[in-house]
Amino acid sequence: MGAKQAKLNKKQLEDLSEKTKFSAKEIKHWHNGFMKDCPTGKLSKGEFSKIYTQFFPKGDPTAFSQFVFNVFDDNGDGSIEFEEFLQALSVTSRGKLDEKLEWAFRLYDLDNDGTITRKEMTAIVEAIFSMVGENEKKESCTPQERVNKIFDKMDKDGNGSLSKEEFMEVAKTDKSIVQGRACKQVNPCAGFNHFVGDFFLS
Fold it and tell me: Where is the EF-hand domain (predicted)?
């Protein structure tokens, strides 16, 4: 798909409809908004961070936005093209629980080795705490305490790292992890579609 293409042709719309959970009409709508804000057809890491900054003005979302950017940037070329953007948005907004948790697992697995270490999860949770600002941090335990609680529940074999199976099994069955305040640590993509929609479709 051409990076600077102003309009999508019929075949591209059909392909994107098959790859995502959006209709052709919705895809056109998203594409128009994407091209309006990203006329080059690519979203840079800096531009991506600005989206988060608008919606988390009391915190510093820089680190977290970069972690999320790396998951969106599927081909690893340092920018997000429309197809990558739409596919990630499809999972985070309309994907099944398994799909969303697999996406979240990829976010936490910073070195892409198929496991999540305490260090990796701590990096993400610290980034979330920085993003939400001081008010939220005063009401919460420390990032390390949060990570310890999650690992106590998820690390079934006690080897100090989480496999995808361990992560998904507990996240799907333990309501104290999947719902409520802890949800941001397990499925950080949960609210992304709401504010990204406001940004690109306004």
Answer: 60-95, 96-131, 142-177
